[in-house]
Amino acid sequence: MILDRILREKELEVAELKRRVPLSELRLLVAEAARQRDGCDGPLDFAGALRRDARGLPAVVAEVKKGSPSKGIIREDFDPVDISQAYQRGGAAAVSVLTDEKFFMGSLDNLKRVKSAVNLPVLRKDFIIDEYQIYEARAAGADAVLLIVAALERARLEDLFCVAEGLCIAALVEVHDEYEMGIALSAGARLVGINNRNLQTFDVSLETTYRLVGSASGVKVVSESGISSRADLQRLGDAGVDAVLVGEALVRGRDVEAKLRELTE
Q: Where are the domains of the chain?
């Protein structure tokens, strides 16, 4: 299964990162980077930026994404700074940056560059299995991290959620079914991402969001994957979704700003 392969590789990747720079050293780097970058303001309010507008349309988290295991390279002329700035002009509420290198052709450096180029909240989207990666995200300037229930044991999810909270960054807790939704809510998630893509098969269906959104009372909901049209946004907003995460539909467009405006205006 694809997710299992990714997680095995991620364990090796994190072990090598720790060998190069121990967690104790990374914590010091995070503290210093935060002082230099943030002053007294700290991370931007990722969750606060995600709200439906007066028309009931969900906010858009626009994703900087070069490729994926299922689609290969999505955009050949990939420039994360140009894309993120087009997203900001086009009305995105926040930006998501894929940082997995082996499977999604991303990098943490892309996140750093995007964070310096826009004034929107930025999400590190990766397969986070260790607190080390959350400290990395914070050092790079991330305002939020993705925690995937399907990739984590319950105790590990709760621990990582607490680490994110301790660093004052948001945790978008991703689920795909009713069981995972229960785990996310019991862990204290206040921002839940419903992934319409099955991470084992990579099949996509918006029905996943429509089925699960009613069980997420009291938390903000982000619908992820498979969203490509204004009609999708309107229907999701009508169902109670606060925000949508859109990547491929935007990145594939010749003019990503124009494509985003089709969704937001």
A: 2-264
E strands present in 111-265: 122-125, 144-148, 170-175, 191-195, 220-224, 243-246
Selection from 2-6, 100-104, 196-200 with the highest mean pLDDT: 100-104
**Model-level pTM?**
0.94
Q: Do the beta carbons of residue 213 and residue 221 sit within 8 Å?
A: yes
Q: Which amino acid is at 222?
A: V
3-state secondary structure of 161: helix
pLDDT tens by residue, 16-33: 999 999 999 999 988 877
Nearest to 91 by CA among 60, 131, 66: 60
Q: Which helix (H) or strand (E) holds 254?
A: none
The CATH homologous superfamily of the domain defined by 2-264: Aldolase class I (3.20.20.70)
Catalytic residues: 63, 65, 125, 174, 195, 224-225
Q: How many CB atoms lie within 10 A of CB 82?
A: 14
